[in-house]
Amino acid sequence: MPTRASRHIVQNEPLLFEVSAPGKQGCQLPPLDVPPVELAGARPEITDFPEVSELEVIRHFTRLSTWNYGVDTGIYPLGSCTMKYNPRINELVTRLDGLGDGHPLQPEALSRGALRIMDLLSRYLLEITGMDAITLQPAAGAQGELTGILLVRAALAARGDARRKVLIPDSAHGTNPATAAIAGYQVENLKSNPAGTVDMASLERQMTADVAALMLTNPNTLGIFEADIHRIADLVHERGGMLYMDGANMNALVGRSRPGDFGVDVMHLNLHKTFSTPHGGGGPGAGPVAVKRELEPFLPIPVLTRRNGEPALDYDRPRSIGRVRAFYGNFGMFTRALAYIMANGCDGLKQTTEDAVLNANYVRKKLEGAYALPYATPSMHEVVFSDANQTAQGVRTGDVAKRLIDYGFHPYTVSFPLVVRGAMMIEPTESASQAELDEFVAAMLAIAEEAKTQPELVTGAPHTTKIGRLDEVAAARQPHLRWQPKR
Amino acid sequence: MRYLPTSDAIRRRMLRDLGLNSVDELFRHIPEYCRLTRTLDIPPGKSEPEILDFFRAAASDNAPGFTSFLGAGAYQHYRPVHLDTLIGRGEWFTAYTPYQPEISQGTLQSIFEFQTMICQLTGQEVANAGMYDGSTALLEACMMAARVTGRDGLVVARSVHPQYREVLATLTRSRDFPITETGYLPSGRLDLDALRAAVGGTTAAVAVQSPNFFGSIEDWEEAAAIAHAAGALLVAVIAEPVSLGLLPAPSAADIVAMELQGFGIPVGFGGPYAGILACRESFVRSLPGRLVGEARDAEGRRGFVLTLSTREQHIRREKATSNICTNQALCALMASIFMATYGKQGLRELAQQNLAKAAYAAEACRRAGLDVLFPAPRFHEFVVKPRRAPATLEAACARERLIPGLPLGRFYPELEGALLVCATEIIPRAELDRLAAALAAR
């Protein structure tokens, strides 16, 4: 069996509250050097709040961590998530004295270094995207989308041409329609054509005078570059709309192609995908938004500008949409992303893109045949297969994914994009070596064989993990969302 | 390139396997006019020492080693050493969202514990796994209140963090949620009569912060009574979680929108932080953000899963409760470790020390003859009128490596010349005396 997995002792660990015992404490404060003060109406003690020693805290969170799988553990081919290496130098520079402890409201004269970091990162991101202006403020990709759509709204209102709808391809991330709805737009679905790209005839029909924007991911979630992008952009612009690009898949383009050069008006970047800031088990991320000149006056305040040749903050922006997050956004992600760009440089960034695309195409070639490939269109940084070859044996994408765990790998993205029934979305990123790709491919091929000969082995997977498949239906029917003591 | 595990020889071998001569062929389907034919105008890759030099220089150009009395939603507290040791484990910080529960039990169990501790602290029945920060948590709480009540009016106290209110205004403008702001009294507390007058039959939410932006402690029960009398929900805003070690839990509120930065998350120029929403159990299906629930496998073993995801964007798309996709998991984990480390007694003691430091600093200012505004009970922040104009004061203090506080005129024109001062447990008594002297100097 081609596997990376071997057996090893895993520690059990109860919940914090079950480790807790009255009278323990994990820290000691220095003696109070001012007179104590009594607060009238102070709360009674916090019922059942944990009481543990420092060592118990260390063991608890260390044991828990060993139940996780991270990029540091091995290949993490989760499509659409760009699970690349998170360099350690990024972590160090973020914690330096003067940065890690800098206060967002300290005087600008005492924030010069922080502003220089934001300024340099902004300039690099503009060079990479080919756009004209940028805000770093949005806290995540989804907040970047919302910011971008609010910018579109403001720009169209300024033209005196408020519109009601946003067009979104059926292959898009769920955040796109959710964002458009929250920004107050009606969402209209745009069908893909048999090549997996935007269907021009549908766009021609649906791109009416009521459509504010087309939200497009390029390359799209099938890993396909929209080859008609200039016709798409032209059509959207001719009809008075704007082209929003979801930059989730920018790892396929950096140094090779720039959205600003192919007609995009506004886009967000995911610093936690393309620019190596860690995913952290589900955040924090950062979602800077880059725009063309027309949208610049509407950027959230404060806007980074220059005063006497030095980076400075401009709050006097009468046409701004306002603020989307307190302070300046996730500054700690700016330092990390900048360190990543500096470490790679122009040469490394381009090489990174090429390796990411090479790796995806390598996996595609090796798995084609064993797994069904719904679209023959060339792949960029990720490839989407389906479980069509396995369903006759009752094996579905989710089962193959669980079986991959037994082989020692993190699964691909399951059942997304929605346009592919039983999707298996694989994004190896540049961080996977050929040896790892070969091991991953061998495991996938072995599972395809198992699906034919012993399908129950696959549908019952995983067999080697700490716990088996959990009953998610029961968990949702009777939600148990907090620990309660047995009294 | 040191991050890439692929050599030129391997690249050539892989390309040959694909029947290609050059990597350019992999990009051939990109239309020619979309291709960048020049090199990016970014310097070539740099070594670690060079990168370190750049960031060290930038860091020293801020205010390293200064004594700072800034708070206002970003609070300096001591961060136990093991906090960074633990979150520095790759299994925590290089993992993705726990969509595959069998290999994500660490993250999932820690979130379940997090949700539990937040419920214990806030006196609420349910807490989500995290929002971006306090400002966006307030926005989400208000939109949630609108869904629950079927109304759209928002009444917000002016003593709620000004930037939280700015975020609320930005995101509600496109949806036409009318916002009414109500004032504060000379005591520093909420003007309850004004609040009562502003709340009516179309009010979805009443948002009140405590300790409020001036540091004054509000009464949740009174605010809740006013909101509930009009059929509206009370959104309790908490910008400083450490206050909950001592202040009454906002159990009278219907939704709690809280910033967690004070729980061990670095001040770090404003982010990343984490917010949370907590609420009554009956609202859970209107709650945005991730939730972790307990579940069992076929053998009856306990485990944890993401649950009730039919509220979320990846399932419900345009009908989702929010477009949020992350939960600031690593920041939430820092908060969990912080809460576990301080624990029941430690958190109380920590809050008491903060209370005492600010009380001492305010008293020192008063003894120096300064006007300390807002006499209502406060936590660890207070408003004071220094003798010099804020800009002059700031420049003079900078020379003494001191940041005396936040000039309030920018946010409250009527408080021009006043300073918001925060004194946490990390400031020694001698520095509190130095502050009073600096504020009193002419």
Write up this protein.
- The complex is a heterodimer of chains A (487) and B (442).
- Chain A has 487 residues and is of the alpha/beta class.
- Chain A has two domains: 253 residues, Type I PLP-dependent aspartate aminotransferase-like (Major domain) (Aspartate Aminotransferase, domain 2); 120 residues, Aspartate Aminotransferase, domain 1.
- Chain A has a seven-stranded mixed sheet, with helices on both faces. Chain A has a three-stranded antiparallel sheet with strand order 10-12-11.
- In chain A, α9 crosses α11.
- The longest helix of chain A has 37 residues.
- Chain A is globular, with a radius of gyration of 25 Å.
- Chain B has 442 residues and is an alpha/beta fold.
- Chain B folds into three domains: 53 residues, no CATH class; 105 residues, Aspartate Aminotransferase, domain 1, CATH 3.90.1150.10; 258 residues, Type I PLP-dependent aspartate aminotransferase-like (Major domain) (Aspartate Aminotransferase, domain 2, 3-Layer(aba) Sandwich).
- Chain B is built from 13 helices and 15 strands.
- In chain B, the strands form four sheets. In chain B, strands 2-8-7-6-5-3-4 form a seven-stranded mixed sheet, sandwiched between helices.
- In chain B, a hairpin with an 8-residue loop joins β11 and β12.
- In chain B, α6 crosses α7.
- Chains A and B meet through α2, α3, α4, α5 and α6 of A and α1, α2, α3, α4 and α5 of B.
